[in-house]
Amino acid sequence: MRTQRGVTLIELLVVITLLGLVSLGLLFAMRVGVSSWQRANARMSADRAVVAANDLLSAQLGGASARMVGWGQRENRIAFVYFEGRPDRLRFLTDYSVASRTRGGVWLAEYWFESNAAKECRLLYNETNWRSDDDAASTIESGSYAADGLHVNFRAAVPGLSTRILYTGLYNCSFEYLIETPNLPVYWGQSWPGDPRLLPHAVAVRFAATERKGIAPVATVTMLNTREVFP
């Protein structure tokens, strides 16, 4: 008579251990897959935000107007091309409204970077309807003539309820301007020196990104289609 042999405790422990290792491997593979999906999604989100911001900036700069405006009291009134180009701020007049997605009228567009303690920057945007030169009063700090020409100092942009955050989570952010001067090669500068008749040929938005925040283009360049002065 044959006796039936059962499963020993050691064999049972071996099976449980093997099942545990297999489960651990599956869990690890799942976590790797989820982590890869999250990184890819972060990259896509960053790229989409940058593309959307670039499209918006391109549309508005494409309709930029080199418009002469007057500022100050009658006896000390000055006239200048309304355009501010700094490393951290861009301000100009355009015929394209982001709010209505249409062209027509005159709109004041303000783009500027804000940075936190971790040196992480974000790009913000304001748009207001430009009715007359009196609207320049809230954006101009001072204006005076010097030996090298007229100097206009703009006020900092003020966030409001309609302010939009175009993208965030980037580093080393700045605007640059394509500058051309007589008898010198064309070059990219971080500040627009101002010109009584012209706007820069192009504006570049430059930044760096990190792996944890997604990978985005290092720079986006937008050409200005309008350079002549309008009264």
Kindly describe this structure.
This protein is an alpha+beta fold and 231 residues long. It has one domain (36-230). The chain is 23% helix and 40% strand. The strands form two sheets. Strands 1, 2, 3, 4, 5, 6, 9, 10, 11, 12 and 13 form an eleven-stranded mixed sheet that branches. The chain has a two-stranded antiparallel sheet with strand order 7-8. The model has no long low-confidence stretch (mean pLDDT 79).
What's the topology here?
Elements: H1 9-62, E1 64-71, E2 78-81, E3 83-85, E4 89-97, E5 102-115, E6 121-129, E7 140-146, E8 149-154, E9 164-179, E10 187-189, E11 202-208, E12 219-223, E13 229-230
Parallel strand pairs: 1-13
Antiparallel strand pairs: 1-2, 1-4, 3-4, 4-5, 5-6, 6-9, 7-8, 9-10, 9-11, 11-12
Q: Measured on Cα atoms, how large is the radius of gyration?
A: 28 Å
Q: Number of DSSP helices?
A: 1
Number of strands: 13
- Largest sheet at a glance? 11 strands, mixed
Number of self-contained structural domains: 1
Helix content: 10-25%
Mean pLDDT over the full residue set: 79
Structural class: alpha+beta
What's this model, at a glance?
The protein is an alpha+beta fold and 231 residues long.
Features of the shown structure:
single chain, 231 residues
